[in-house]
Amino acid sequence: GVASLRSDSRLIITGPMERGKTREAAELIRRAVAEGLVASDHVFEPGPTFRLLTRDDLLDTFRHLWEHRHPVLIFIDDLPYRFRGQGLEQVSEALAVLDEYEAAYVISTARSDQLDNSHYEWLRQQRFLEIELPDLDEARAARLVDNAAGLFQLQVDEAARSELVLAADRTPARIVTSLRLLQAEGVTHVDQEMANHLAGEGLAELWSKARNQVEREVPESGLVLEALEMFHAARVTALTPLVLDYAAHLWRRKTGRLSSWKAKPAWKRGLDSLARIDVTADEQEIAYPDGAVEGRIERETAQQELGAFLERHWRLFHRWGFRDVYDD
User: By CB count within 10 A, which of 92, 188, 244, 255 is most buried?
Assistant: First the structure.
C-alpha cells in the first residue's frame, strides 16, 4: 500500500491477465493523493511521445517541480508490453533522472506471463518492489458483484450472487463482463439459473460474446477491433491515427474498393460503441483491455502483416518527428 510506496518508492504490481492490476494501481494512487504523499496534478503517465524525450527534456519537465520541492509520481501501466528494447532503455533514462530527486515515486503494472528473466533483472537493477496481486477473496468478490450490479442497474438475487462470487477464477473482469452482458441483453433481474450459466463460461467466451453484441449493433466497430487485434498481437502501440488508418485498409481489402472509406463518421460510431467494452481513445492513443483483443492472431503473423502496412507510412513518422517510434 502507501506505506510500501513511502519506504521503497518504486512498486510494480504483477498478476495474470484481467486480475485487476490497473484498478489496484489506480486505487493506490488515489490513496497516495488522499494521504498527502503527492498532489493529484503531480501524477504523470508516459504518453506516445515519451520515447522522443531526451535526458535534458526530462530534466526540464521536472525542474520547476523540484525547485518547489513538490513530490512527483510516475505511473507506467503494462510495463513489459509497452516498453521493450529501446523503449525500456528510455524508461531507464527517466528513472535515472528521478534518482536525482528524493521525492519521486513510481508505480507500474505487469502481466506475469509477459515478464521474462531479462525483465526481472531490469526490475532488480531499478530497485522495484514486486507486489503480486492475489485472487479476489470471497468478501472482495461479493463487493465487486454488488458494485457492478448497481452500475449496470441489475437486481441480483442472493442465490445468483453466491454463484457469481464463487465463479471459477474470481477475476474482476469475469464478474464485470458477465453482468455487462446481461445488461446489454436487456436483463434487469438476475436469477440463479442465469448466474450458473455465466459461471460456467470462460473469460474468453464472455469477451467474445461482448464483442459480438457490439458488432451486431454497430458493424463499424468490428473493423476497429480487428485493427486493434493486429496492433496488440504485434506489440505495437495503438496510436489512434494508425489504428484507424489500418481499419480503413481492412475495409478496402475486404470490399475490393479502391475509393476512400468515409472514415470519420464510421470511426466515431465504432469507437463510441467500443466504450461499452472498455475500449477508449483520445487523439493520440487507444486504450483497451487485453481480453477484448487477445488470442486470435499469432504474434509473428501480426508483425509481418502490420510491418508491411507501416512501411507505407514511414514518411509521416519522419515528417512529424516520430522516427524513434517508427523504428521501434
Answer: 244
Q: What is the pTM of this model?
A: 0.64
Question: Using CA atoms, how far apart are residues 195 and 206, in angstroms rounded to an integer?
Answer: 13
Amino acid at the residue 303: Q
Q: Which of the four pLDDT bands, split at 50, 70 and 90, describes residue 40?
A: confident
* Grid-cell match 464510421, residue found: 266
Number of Cβ within 10 Å of residue 152's Cβ equals 18
Are 288 and 225 a contacting pair, CB within 8 Å?
Answer: no
- Cβ partners under 8 Å of residue 27, min gap 6: none
- In this structure, what C-alpha cell is assigned to residue 251? 475495409
Place of cell 511521445: 49
Geometric angle at alpha carbon 207, from 203 and 209, rounded to 5°: 115
Q: Measured between alpha carbons, how far is residue 182 from residues 6, 27, 225 in Å? A: 42, 27, 21
**Spatial CA neighbour of 16 closest among 232, 171, 122:** 171
DSSP 3-state of 129: strand
The backbone torsions φ and ψ at residue 166, rounded to the nearest 5 degrees and listed phi first, read -95, 10
Q: Is residue 231 a contact partner of residue 243, using CB atoms and an 8 Å limit?
A: yes
